[in-house]
Structures
1.
Amino acid sequence: MRIDLISIFPEYFDVLDLSLIGRAQQDGVLQIHRHNLRDHTEDKHRSVDSPPAGGGAGMVMKPEPWARALEVVLADTNPALRPTLVIPTPSGELFTQDAATRLAEQPHLVFAPGRFEGIDERLTAWAAEHFEVLRLSIGDYVLNGGEAASVVIVEAVTRLIPGVIGNEASLQEESHSEGLLEYPVYTKPAHWRGLDIPEVVLSGNHAKTAQWRRAQAEERTKSIRPDLWQRYQSS
Ligand code: JBK
């Protein structure tokens, strides 16, 4: 998979050189390209924002530097493969594990994380001629920009690509892939600071342990995430 990230803070994405994603790049499973949005401005101040048309608070990102940066990415892309453009925004569709699974099947993802009050709406319309455009939100809270959301999406998506994480079983068993929260987990020692591992977990009875884990997962989901519980029951 190829990933292009365009930002006024391209160094933000240095974290993607660490750990499993860094290894995947070294192994050639992933190609990650970073671009500085300001390299695609034309004025001497390299400005990327201006006040909102119609008034209001804050600043809006101008569409032209984004279009130029995206054209540079397109120039380096097989035109037959329509890349996916991800615009992280609190006004987008909620990014879920299902969305991660779909994105993991794409050959080329491009991220356009905005700062300030977001990107001029016309950028989306222009980009739709060249990209599959997805406006995605990672959740209902306020961030300083789309960079952190981009990192979250890249991590959730790339770990699903064969060869990025070693252990397929742990990938499968992960919370959310079944629609339930994870059951409680323990490790040695059996007694720790006056707290014990539940007996059934130490019993060596795999059927009983599996039953207990399932019950715990259901109990947790019911009380902590009634929204997930409803969907789980109706599926
Ligand atoms: C938020 O993807 N998001 O959720 C997001 C992107 C950019 C700014 C934001 O405040 N929540």
2.
Amino acid sequence: MAKTIQAIRGMNDCSPTETPLWQWVEGQIKDTLASYGYSEMRSPIIESTALFERGVGEATDIVEKEMFTFVRDEESLTLRPEGTAGCVRAAIEHGWIYNQEQRLWYIGPMFRYERPQKGRYRQFHQAGVEIFGISNAEADAELILLTARLWKKLGIDQHVSLQLNSIGGLEVRTKYREALVAFLQNHLDILDEDCKRRLHTNPMRILDTKNQAIQEVLNNAPKLHDFLDEESKSHFETLCSILDAMGIHYEVNQKLVRGLDYYNKTVFEWVTTALGAQGTVCGGGRYDGLVAQLGGHSTEGVGFAMGLERLVLLVQEVNPNVQLARPVDVYVVYQGTGTTAAAFNLAERLRSALPQLRVMQHASGGNFKKQFKRADKSGAKIALVLGESEVENNSVVVKDLFGEVDQITISQTDVIAELTKRFA
Ligand code: HAM
């Protein structure tokens, strides 16, 4: 036998038994976005490497070490590690955000060369949302309300909590960074290698180190909020007051800075303790400078992205009774002369009249016993049975495979009414 070829490490297949839950989660997300009036945009999975270097930031983990980059015709290309940069690139290129507000969303695979573990993969999927052209905190609040509504629909709202922070503008962060570096210079002995490296490249990322000893020292570090400018402060106060009024609980976490360079003012994360180390199911914030930085007219932006693998894992963990659609509702079995055409006719008629039903027709021959085994395995609730005598009388046997109703024989003319009743 030829040697089999396996999937690439950190990149997963989704089996036909897993896809119904994925489709359900994606359906809840799309319905929620539609109910807020957002529009879907789509963009390529591959972009110029320069887009992420300039957009996400050279000193971020993503750009420094996690991108899948390759050269084709002397051009450096990268599999998108996140969706915001591509969305902004497309919005500038096509004039979607020139002098107008936009509320956009996208869904699809992202790629990061990280060490795979539960909840962290090299190909993963995000649903992301970006609002353009609104500077007010109302936009930030709307995004948070939208996510809170979605958690309720997914049945995970009791298992996620909101972390919120304001990181101000560039000037604020420059001043704060200086103060933080000066503080940490006095504690060099406690810093690990990773933090020492970040001290010179991206010192604010040290704030969310998992190293407990460093975290304790950081408790005495200068506080970001003491450096905030008036505008950022009032933006944050407005956001908090809307969330308070709407009954959204949050924790202000001054150490939350996020791993991408484009943020200013609001940053937030929804986290869970139910998934182990990879507990952030959704992260986002404001990025008022990014559009201009990527060559567009200065336009404010705010958005977030959620990790679909983590959401699916969380739903499985805390909401195992979610009602998923059956893959097959009705299975058509038939045997004998003249029954093949009758079965095709019946199945096609059902699909036209009852498009919401999932109708599978047996196709691999064999006697009724074998066909009923297939029908059971398909998960169908109803089997429709056609033998020679049924074809002759224009009738059909309706058999409840779950054994809830006795088997009956009815005229084929009544089958649509009968199934409508059974699946009401
Ligand atoms: P991010 O925090 O890098 O933000 O990613 C958002 C979410 O994607 C994370 O909270 C997590 O749920 C999921 N995620 C990230 N990396 C992985 C991975 N390796 N495996 C599985 N899931 C993962 C962004 O990407 C920003 N573009 C979000 C944004 C949109 N900010 C403003 N607009």
